[in-house]
């Protein structure tokens, strides 16, 4: 099988991966990969990422059971980012129990949750007080996330 | 207006932004932002990114006219990546003319194109010859991208 080669060099060996549910199109998470983890994913069909915090190979769901079966990949125009289309197994992609890691709008409202969510103190984010803005926030239709 | 503050520090001041069509859910591109460009985007409603290649502020569509009106933002569990839900103006998000920068599957087949596409020599990517793999490629249903 021939596949296109991502340009890992452009980003010092580690490029971002947008992880999208193959059926719903919901974006589940943003992860990173290097060449070895990318090739392992292509070969096995299980999503294997590179953890930038631990600086090591990270097979998604290896401990939690929430593995991701990769059903397709897209690559962007300049080859330095990927989309994995996955079947998410288990309770979801997020460590909080949410189906998607993007479960909050920037205003702090609940977005796409799906699943029993458990947000601890370390999952809270600081707040910025913005001046009056020109756009009509909030806008997002949660059903379309 | 109060908004959650992304953790720019975790990624040396520059974090990835997944840009998604607010209506279709199609992922249009992967961009980056820093704090100043993020705040400008919130204040004006027009997508302003940080170009990691030119190392400077980049207002999307400033020269091409293909601006993006941001209609909502999501932030991930640990605050170091964002989704912008946008209305894409003009011909599309990609410099090739495609609606989405992710117009190719990893096998090199056409994915979601939408628009008159013009791929030049510099848009071509190198190829890897893979051994036989365990998964059933290609899989992606192009209609669901």
Low-confidence stretches of chain A: 138-145
Q: For the largest sheet of chain A, list the strands in their spatial order.
A: 3-2-7-6
**What multimeric state do the chains show?**
homodimer
Q: Main beta sheet of chain A, described?
A: 4 strands, mixed
Structural class of chain A: mainly beta
Give me the count of strands of chain A.
9
SSE topology string of chain A: EEEHEEEEEE
What portion of the residues of chain A fall into strands of 2 or more residues? 25-35%
The chain pair forming the largest interface, with residue counts per chain, is: A-B, 68 and 68 residues
Rg of chain A, please? 17 Å
* pLDDT averaged residue by residue of chain A: 87
Overall helicity of chain A: under 10%
Overview in brief:
2 copies of one chain form a homodimer. With about 140 residues, chain A is mostly beta strands.
Can you describe this structure?
The structure is a homodimer of 145-residue chains. Chain A contains one helix and nine strands. The first copy, chain A, has one helix at 35-44; strands at 2-4, 15-21, 27-33, 48-51, 56-59, 68-75, 82-88, 104-105, 127-129. In chain A, strands 3-2-7-6 form a four-stranded mixed sheet, covered by helices on one side. In chain A, strands 4-5 form a two-stranded antiparallel ribbon. In chain A, strand 2 and strand 3 (27-33) form a beta hairpin. Residues 138-145 of chain A have low confidence and may be disordered.
